[in-house]
Amino acid sequence: MDLSPSFRESLLTTLNATEFEERETLQELWSGYGRIVRVLVDGSPIIIKQICTAQSSGSPAHPRGWNTNRSHQRKLHSYQVESIFYQSWSQKCGNDCRVPELIAISAQNGEIVLAIEDLDAAGFPMRDLPSIEPCLKWLANFHATFIGAKPTGLWEIGTYWHLDTRPDEFAKLKAGPLKDAASAIDRLLNQARFQTIVHGDAKIANFCFDPSGKKVAAVDFQYAGGGCGMKDVAYLMGSCLSADQCARREDELLNLYFGELTGRLASTHPEIDAEALIQEWRQLYPVAWADFHRFLLGWCPGHPKLDEYSLQMVSRSLEALSK
What is the pTM of this model? Predict the structure, then answer.
């Protein structure tokens, strides 16, 4: 899967450069849709995300067998959303919710190619650190930046697991109280008074750390869209903490997130009733967790994240709904 000569020439022209060298493939994209590669342009590193959009439906190999036409179309749309995020939204992100700078983009001949800033070279070379605090601060600043924004060009409902976009997995979910409550849980999140733009896939693997581990930047905006910020927060916590850690640190980490959020809102959106937002989103934290638990049960019933803490979140949500 080579980069087209026309894209190489276009990138060189955009950067007023003369030399292009492909160095290494960093990652194959999920289900075989392309790759992420590092290149050098006049010696400076740039990251290229190359996505093939011309595959026939269902052809890519999904590791869990979910290679349906619906899955294929969802993935194609996700890459279009990411392109729009970098073109129209990323410039609004400041240093407190750092994202890569878009350098160039091409969409033709059955592929999308994004050229973005190399975060390693920008001072964020560390990956997969067990450091959730800077990631929560990043999310708080990201959510505050886009509070009340209409997700134009993005997913109307952000995250890759929300109910409307996962009917196949929902059909596999065993009958029971959670399945009965799935629509009500979905409505609570989607009809919350306070909405923002969510990252949509805010797992620890999508954060890049500076050498100190105290500053982060984020990547992978395929599922960015409208929603309650608790969807990102619950997903992040589940991605890097054990059930015991989640239980012990829930109040501490939520307080950290909301402290950062209200501080940013006070300076950028003083018209927002921060106390009302905190009250609503705290109540929706277990609901957001239960929503992801519902997806996992249908997608991979034996997933290790279907743990005791996650079950407690489901119980809290169902109890709140019953009242």
Answer: 0.94
